[in-house]
Amino acid sequence: MKALLFIVSLALLIFSSPRSILAQAAAPPVAERAPIAGRILTLDECIAIALEAQPRIQATLSDYAAARYRVTQALAPLLPQLSGSASATRSHSITTVTSQTTGQTLDLASSRLLSDTFIAQVQLSQLLFDFGKNLAATEAARKLAEVAVENVELQRQLISLAVKEAYTNILFAGRLIRVQDQAVQRAELNLRSAKGFFEVGTRPKSDVARAEVDVANARVDLIRARNALRTARVALNTAMAIDVDTPTEIQDNLVFEAVSLDRGQLRTESLKQRPEYRQAKLLVGAAEATERQTFRNFFPDISGTGSYGATQPQLNESWTLGLTFSWSLFDGGNRLARYQEAKANLEGSKQRLKSQELDIIQNVEQAEIAVEETQERIQAGQALVASAQENFRLAQGRFDAGVGTILELTDAQLALTQAQNTETQALADYRIALARLDRAVGRR
């Protein structure tokens, strides 16, 4: 009775159209989106666009649909098999017959037309009992279909992470452009001051040369920052599956908001939400079902058959009923080897599940450490920028008063630029660390 209920529920599950299959695994429908160009996108909007348009997700949805159809294929032998056939032959033969009384040899011709040999029939067969072989095969196929579902979620999480990292890199590059632009302005101001002092004879020519070098270095760093911005925008557009030349504009969220982490809770959540871990558990279930199937292959099959038809020329009715008992007694050790293979695969799946758990815990720990580290780096960077600004202000005043050297001013300017870059890098690393922590826990 339980087996019958399983078959019925499974049949209702899998006999659906491809459109409904994809709809069940796809993301919730969204309204028609406004044009991307010409407006400022938030991080959530970028993620939503990517999840809707990324071809990698569409590919995994198709893989899921194919896996569902494989469940149908595994279930099919449990359901009635109906077939029809019709045949007709035309023949002509000559038979040599020797009379026993006269001893004469005669050639007798025999000819049959298509209408004389026409046969039509419908055949029905039903597997009655197979010791659960096909049920186990169907269960294994169903587990693999669920693995395909988890692969859809895995791709969504990976794409969300890619969007978050590219989004942050755009903001980081934009901040670097502003920092380097300020560095260029300071270097050009110092160059003008050095030239003015040189013209009145209070500074040597070397101060002017050193200031010109600082201007050139600042401009090179500015060019690099601008190229980094272009590269990050291409990465974000690619992650969102839009034209790489789209002038994407995004909202700045590169701010520091301290977070507190509960390590125990994050570990528990990661083992519940990471699709890789759920996939590993499903693969263990599929391996168990395959192991049951290969073991039950040692037992016989019982099937019922029946046919109904008619033959020409009088359309004589004919029907048959039969019961088939089949049992392969020896096949050269093939079934035994397949069973042993299934047992080995099951043990391997169990060990991979344990390995996956260790990897996930390690990922969560590493992500937590990265978040805590970047929080400390941000606080140190903020203090460093404040000190560097004050040092540069003092060095600028000494140089303008004629008591400081160009080397002292240049060092202070470089220290300020590096401090600002360090703070900006820490802010970007913090956002990326939070994104990777979400990925490690299994969040989008």
Can you characterise this structure?
The protein has 444 residues and is an alpha+beta fold. Helix content is 67%, strand content 14%. The chain contains 11 helices and 8 strands. The chain has helices at residues 2-14, 18-25, 43-53, 55-75, 114-117, 133-199, 205-239, 263-273, 275-296, 334-401, 406-441; strands at residues 40-41, 81-87, 91-98, 105-112, 119-129, 249-250, 301-311, 316-326. The strands form 3 sheets. A 4-stranded antiparallel sheet has the order 2-5-7-8, with no helix packed on it. Strands 1-6 form a two-stranded parallel ribbon. A two-stranded antiparallel ribbon has the order 3-4. Helix 1 (2-14) runs antiparallel to helix 4, helix 6 packs antiparallel against helix 11 and helix 9 packs antiparallel against helix 10 (334-401). The longest helix is centred in the last third of the chain and has 68 residues, at 334-401. The radius of gyration is 39 Å and the shape is elongated. The two termini are 42 Å apart. The model is unreliable at 1-9 and 11-31 (pLDDT under 50).
Nearest-integer average pLDDT: 85
* Total of helices: 11
From the helix content, strand content and strand pairing, which structural class follows? alpha+beta
Euclidean distance between termini CA atoms: 42 Å
Measured as a percent range, the helix fraction is 55-70%
Brief characterization of the structure:
The chain has 444 residues and is of the alpha+beta class. It has helices at 2-14, 18-25, 43-53, 55-75, 114-117, 133-199, 205-239, 263-273, 275-296, 334-401, 406-441, and strands at 40-41, 81-87, 91-98, 105-112, 119-129, 249-250, 301-311, 316-326.
